[in-house]
Automatic annotation (TrEMBL):
<comment type="similarity">
    <text>Belongs to the peroxidase family. Ligninase subfamily.</text>
</comment>
<feature type="disulfide bond">
    <location>
        <begin position="271"/>
        <end position="336"/>
    </location>
</feature>
<keyword id="KW-0106">Calcium</keyword>
<keyword id="KW-0575">Peroxidase</keyword>
<feature type="disulfide bond">
    <location>
        <begin position="61"/>
        <end position="143"/>
    </location>
</feature>
<protein>
    <recommendedName>
        <fullName>Peroxidase</fullName>
        <ecNumber>1.11.1.-</ecNumber>
    </recommendedName>
</protein>
<keyword id="KW-1015">Disulfide bond</keyword>
<keyword id="KW-0408">Iron</keyword>
<feature type="binding site">
    <location>
        <position position="89"/>
    </location>
    <ligand>
        <name>Ca(2+) 1</name>
    </ligand>
</feature>
<dbReference type="Pfam" id="PF11895">
    <property type="entry name" value="Peroxidase_ext"/>
</dbReference>
<dbReference type="InterPro" id="IPR019794">
    <property type="entry name" value="Peroxidases_AS"/>
</dbReference>
<keyword id="KW-0479">Metal-binding</keyword>
<dbReference type="GO" id="GO:0020037">
    <property type="term" value="F:heme binding"/>
</dbReference>
<keyword id="KW-0964">Secreted</keyword>
<dbReference type="InterPro" id="IPR024589">
    <property type="entry name" value="Ligninase_C"/>
</dbReference>
<feature type="binding site">
    <location>
        <position position="218"/>
    </location>
    <ligand>
        <name>Ca(2+) 2</name>
    </ligand>
</feature>
<feature type="disulfide bond">
    <location>
        <begin position="41"/>
        <end position="307"/>
    </location>
</feature>
Length: 360
């Protein structure tokens, strides 16, 4: 009897070991829970868990997500084929006193300080460049409708601060913006794709009297409302216009940047802009590809490890593209010469106001 029971136990344990065996091409992490394509990625799973629970308030698509995504851009775009800069190397964190003083980086110091404090508190040993890109990718995964961004591990520490004047500003002309991006290796379509980040963004310092003002009516959802609402005729609301870089917004409580308004109407970018209006899959795909390219600026991808499997899978978006309540297709300022603006229906009821994004 005993030998049969022991044999059964051995078989059960063997079955358990087989069940926990790593799938082909993957390694089992020491935590006994996760598997990874490379053992180096195993150390990231607990960092992702604590980012979600502590830094992003249990998985919210809120202010810390918005600012972390913004930081990935402000750090990485510090790269130029003609002027230098290390790109996505974390220099904005290491050389904070220099780079956060740049005019275009106004307000970035808050998220830099928050991330530095988080790194220190949790004894995280990632390089600054890796942590900034990891936090941005994890944060975006909390926004319904977002693509699952890719993440590569192994960026070395930065050697110097980025040169000034490499970050585009909201009052720059379309020509100046496209030229700056071209000097970093991006074409006009990729510029528009990167601006999908504005669908989960808000401004604090463009007009300091109205902090947390979102760029579309759904700042907690990665959807195409930003591309729709930016093409609507603007209405001047007291207290929300008149500052450099800001123009009239179509909805009360919403901000429209001058650069966004002009890119939505410029013949070099208007058709790509319009293509995202009713094609969520295309917007996701284009944004994901452009973000990967951004995250690798200044880096040699062959020296990095693909740890994309540590990034959580975002929830799907359920809302369909729509016009805001109180508007119609007559309010759309069509700009693409090659295809008509998609037919959309408006939300029922009178025009409403967009609530600000609450501070973290």
């Amino acid at each position: 009897m005993f030998s049969k029971a022991l044999a059964s136990l051995v078989l059960a344990l063997s079955a358990l070991r087989i069940a926990r065996a790593a799938p082909p091409g993957r390694v089992a992490c020491a935590d006994g829970v996760h598997f990874a394509s490379d053992a180096a990625c195993c150390a990231l799973f607990p960092i992702v868990d604590i980012l979600e629970s502590d830094f992003f308030d249990g998985g919210e698509c809120g202010e810390e997500v918005h600012e972390s995504l913004r930081l990935t851009f402000h750090d990485a775009i510090g790269f130029s084929f003609t002027q230098g800069g290390g790109g996505a190397d974390g220099s904005i964190m290491v050389f904070e006193d220099i780079e956060t003083a740049f005019h275009a980086n106004a307000g970035v110091d808050e998220i830099v300080d928050a991330q530095k404090a988080f790194i220190q508190k949790n004894n995280i040993t990632l390089s600054p460049g890796d942590f900034i890109q990891l936090a941005g990718a994890v944060g975006v995964s909390n926004c319904p409708g977002a693509p699952r961004l890719e993440f590569f591990l192994g960026r070395p520490a930065p050697k110097a601060a980025s040169p000034d004047l490499l970050v585009p500003e909201p009052f720059d002309s379309v020509t100046k913006i496209l030229a700056r991006f071209a000097d970093a290796g991006f074409n006009p379509n990729e510029v528009v794709a990167l601006l999908a980040s504005h669908t989960v963004a808000a401004a604090d310092l463009v007009d300091p009297t109205i902090p947390g003002t979102p760029f579309d009516s759904t700042p907690g959802i990665f959807d195409s409302q930003f591309f729709i609402e930016t093409q609507l005729k603007g209405t001047l609301f007291p207290g929300t216009a008149g500052n450099q870089g800001e123009v009239m917004s179509p909805l009360r409580g919403e901000m429209r940047l001058q650069s966004d308004a002009e890119l939505a109407r410029d013949p070099r970018t208007a058709c790509q802009w319009q293509s995202f209006v009713n094609n969520q899959a295309n917007m996701q795909s284009e944004f994901k590809a452009a973000m990967l390219k951004l995250s690798l600026l200044g880096q040699n991808q062959r020296n990095l490890v693909d740890c994309s499997e540590v990034i959580p899978v975002p929830r799907a978006v359920t809302d369909k593209p729509h016009l805001p309540a109180g508007s119609s297709l007559r309010d759309v300022e069509r700009a693409c010469a090659f295809s008509p603006f998609p037919v959309l229906t408006a939300d029922p009821g009178p025009a409403t106001s967009v609530a600000p994004v609450p501070p973290s």
